[in-house]
Amino acid sequence: MGVPVLHRLALNESPYPPLPSVRRAMRRAVAQAHRYPQFHPDDLTERIAAWCRVCPGSVAVGSGSVGVALQALQAVVEPGDTMVHAWRTFDAYPLLAGMAGARPVPVPLSPDGHQDLGALLAAVDHRTRVVVVCNPHNPTGSLIAADALRAFLRRVPRHVTVLLDEAYVEFARAADPPDLPAFLGAHPNVLVLRTFSKAYGLAALRVGYGLGTPDLVERIRRQQLPFGINAVATAAVEASLRAGGELRRRVDTVVTERERLRQELGGLGWRVGPGHANSVWLAAPDPVDEGAAVLTEAGVLTRHYPGEGLRITVGTRKANDTVLTALAGPVARRFRQARVPVSGCSVHTVLPSRE
Ligand code: PMP
Fold this sequence. Notes:
Bound molecules: 4'-deoxy-4'-aminopyridoxal-5'-phosphate
Mean pLDDT: 92
Strand content: 15-25%
CATH superfamily of the largest domain: Type I PLP-dependent aspartate aminotransferase-like (Major domain)
Shape: globular
CATH class of the largest domain: Alpha Beta
Number of strands: 11
Oligomer: single chain
């Protein structure tokens, strides 16, 4: 028998179950489960639009942001087209490209875990129909500075749709969040993807949304499954939007814990990546394989990319303490001995960040 799993830190989920008010709303919706949801999710679309301060025509709702991404690919891709994306990235993207009939074109991340915007642009050619950019990125958590993103988007040809995946945007403390209507108007080929799976803690319910110009959104909505958004999920999202303050405090706690993990892992000798999502990223040549092994032994599930990296979702304080204890063990000790100390007794080195 294997070690029992105590903490699930592998899928960048929220460590918190739905709020009591959200559970109540779900229970009320369950009692009406013999009724269909709306044919098109118009009420939810309007609610999200009002919350994002955009017009309802700018919002496409889907089965998680991954569902909206698939609808977008199906809307714009023709046979023989390509989809350019960083690699690594969220594993679903190459699969979605295949489902929509596009050939994925992976572009390596830069050594410090950032998406290489210049290389992504260089990979765009006349066959490219879609470019995916995640901000923050998965798995490294890197963030693209606002001016670098704007310069990149200006250079992407207009016939190419940019999927700007902001699944983790709530965890990134961006200095100047863009005015959405102005941003979408300036970049009509961009679809911003967001989700209720991460900061809002509703991963099991599968609700995500895309924000774009009405022309683009109209094409994406044509790919939406009728009755495709279930009523219990809709009730949970609406209740979550009403509980925005409480949920933002949960996000603040996750961000505080993320920074604590970064600091303390750094103190143990790990080089911790740029981390703006709800996770921390440890990369080779640090001993990530041994790190994954000691965490498994400690009952902690993480996302391990053998020989390459380790993505650890920020959990509860207790889960994070378990991570720190495990990673302070033999691996870190051995590793510390090999590292040249800097500034007195500290061996803490943080990868350079581009923000
Ligand atoms: N985008 C990124 C970058 C992700 O990491 C994930 C989930 N790991 C998703 C999208 C999927 O989100 P959803 O649950 O909304 O489909």
